[in-house]
Design goal:
With 307 residues, the protein is mainly alpha-helical. The protein folds into 2 domains: 1-158, Alpha/alpha barrel (Glycosyltransferase), CATH 1.50.10; 162-307, no CATH class. Helices cover 59% and strands 7% of the residues. It contains 11 helices and 8 strands. A hairpin with a 2-residue loop joins strand 7 and strand 8. Helix 8 (188-208) runs antiparallel to helix 9, helix 9 (215-230) packs parallel to helix 11 and helix 10 (237-250) packs across helix 11 (278-295).
């Protein structure tokens, strides 16, 4: 949808529609949830559902609705948004990251960031904010604002419990939090959190990057720097240029069209890791597009366009 909005090439819209149709098939109407993994013949089997993934699905479905006007997309997004609130709520502004299916019991938590609640979940809550914008229903706005407040309170503890390579992994998740606060950057406390967060991520990357650096974190940081700069918060062109060079070094040129133009996942000890990652590719592509727009003096991306 990002590429279609920029180019109006039908092949990108066709690809998005195929993904949307798959998601509608994958929706488990009996359980009222998107399963993490889906098989045509095992729709009601044991499995898991993820709060974070559900929020990303909501945003994708809403993007389809805005472009096509098809009611099926917004209705599916609304159902998923309600499931996020009703099924994953853990009390005290907290949400279970993973549910076991079919009973929807919370999965055991662990120190791994994706298996515990945290400020990173605010990125998924952007789905609620966008649902509010598209439907006018105030509940969605209330749920986003509640998780925003909780995330701002708990953000400082999120990075403090990692060491080694896990620091870079946590920076990836912490950038999700920073992306989640972008729609409220006009508030002084949010602007301060964004400026501090960008500085923290940049500093941590300098410290641990020589040993292990992820391409998606580089792309996330560049997107954040550009959007923060447009809001008048700490623009640093030299820092952005350094990130651009790092991101470009991850992009692959190959005769294999399945991976040509894709982005390697990471570099460890100066050595590129030999696999191409679709999420890294999406983030890297969007970050470089934003940089080109910035150089042209027309940064067109809004916070709700951040993948």
């Amino acid at each position: 949808m990002c590429l279609y909005s920029l180019t109006r090439e039908e092949r990108y819209l066709d690809a998005a529609l195929r993904a949307g149709r798959f998601l509608r098939r994958a929706w488990n109407a009996r359980l009222g949830v998107f399963p993490f993994e889906y098989s045509e013949g095992e729709a009601d089997s044991d499995g898991f559902a993820y709060f974070f993934d559900s929020g990303i699905i909501v945003r994708g479905l809403l993007r389809l609705w805005r472009i096509t006007g098809g009611r099926e997309w917004i209705e599916a997004a609304k159902a998923c948004g309600r499931s996020m609130r009703q099924d994953f709520a853990a009390g005290d502004s907290e949400y279970h990251p993973i549910l076991r299916l079919p009973g929807k019991e919370p999965a055991p938590r662990s120190p791994q960031w994706s298996r515990t609640p945290g400020c990173y979940q605010l990125k998924a809550a952007l789905g609620w904010l966008e649902l509010h914008k598209d439907t006018g229903e105030s509940d969605y706005l209330d749920w986003y604002e509640d998780l925003l407040a909780a995330s701002l309170r708990t953000r400082e503890s999120f990075l403090g419990c990692a060491s080694g390579d896990a620091v870079m992994d946590r920076l990836h998740a912490y950038c999700y939090f920073l992306e989640g606060i972008l729609p409220r950057v006009e508030r002084p406390e949010v602007a301060a959190a964004l400026a501090d967060g960008i500085a923290t991520v940049a500093g941590q990357m300098t410290a641990v990057g020589p040993g292990f650096v992820r391409s998606d974190v580089c792309a996330q940081l560049l997107r954040l720097q550009l959007l923060a700069g447009r809001a008048g918060i700490g623009a640093n062109r030299l820092a952005a240029l350094s990130l651009v060079e790092k991101i470009e070094a991850f992009q692959l040129s190959s005769p294999d069209l399945r991976i040509h133009g894709g982005f390697f996942f990471a570099r460890r000890g100066g050595q590129l890791q030999p696999h191409v990652n679709p999420v890294s590719t999406a983030f890297g592509l969007q970050a470089l597009l934003m940089w080109r727009q910035y150089l042209a003096g027309e940064l067109l991306f809004a916070p709700d366009m951040v993948i």
